[in-house]
Write a structure and sequence with these properties.
Structural class: alpha/beta
Number of domains: 1
CATH architecture: Alpha-Beta Barrel
Shape: globular
CATH class: Alpha Beta
Largest sheet: 8 strands, parallel, barrel
Helix content: 40-55%
CATH topology: TIM Barrel
Distance between the termini: 44 Å
Strand order of the largest sheet: 1-2-3-4-5-6-7-8
Amino acid sequence: MARQAKYRERLPQLGGGLFLTDGGLETTLIFREGWELPRFEAFVLLNDLIGRMVLRAYFDRYVLMAIEAGAGFILESPTWRANSDWGKKLGYGAEALQRINRAAIEMMLDIRYRHETSASPMVVSGCIGPRGDGYAPGALMRPDEACDYHRPQVLTFRDAGADLVSAFTMTNIGEAQGIALAAKAANMPCVISFTVETTGRLPAGESLAEAIKCVDDATDKGPAYYMINCAHPTHFDHVLNAGETWIKRLRGLRANSSRMSHAELDNAPELDIGDPLELGGQYADLRRRFPHINVLGGCCGTDHRHVDCISTACRGAAQAA
């Protein structure tokens, strides 16, 4: 049974309230579930029954956590690597990628259909990853090139019934601008999530303030909001200034629990999961300082334990306030 977009015209997370999302899908599948995914290609699990069961169990655990907390939830499709460059490395052509991206949204829509409650609205997001590596900018695209490159995935998500598209681990301004332009042309709400190094700056060197301003200027404030992902809170906490206007555009966090830099994570022999309780406390502190930041999850190395600590700490901080 086909499911349809529900919140495309009015994203509920923009109205406030706590919204959770999942943790590090790919690192969970690889290091906790034992899947061989050398390119972090989680979307391949959609190809067979066992893989789909694994993905459903993964998302169900987080969804039930959100329902218990009375929080909303953002269902991010497992498609971070489902673009043409990464697809070609795995033997996927354009038609195969379109099929797999559509199947991912259909799964997210079905999970919402089975679990959503009035107290826990569930927003379906088509997840877009970078053309290159998530830790390094590589060859930079012009905004128009990035728009053309990412347009097929954006259109597939739109036609499959996603509520919005979210671009994660953006390392540079041009690619982020291109994705936002592609989403705007498709009349799709869009979220842009930048990653930063330990300096708080993008891997391409720009500051978060500069990146957000440049994307907003190029798209007439096209993105619904911005996020930070794949960095520890200590890597970006020092660049968040409540007195700067761009902070109001920042609404979500999907941090790493590890304090390691991107280079250290790339060369680490084992997964560093950090301290879930410490991470929860850091999120709660950020929420106290910036209460408009209300979309919370994890990235590399995090799992349901981290998101549970984040949820508990942030709800406790809200009650105390």
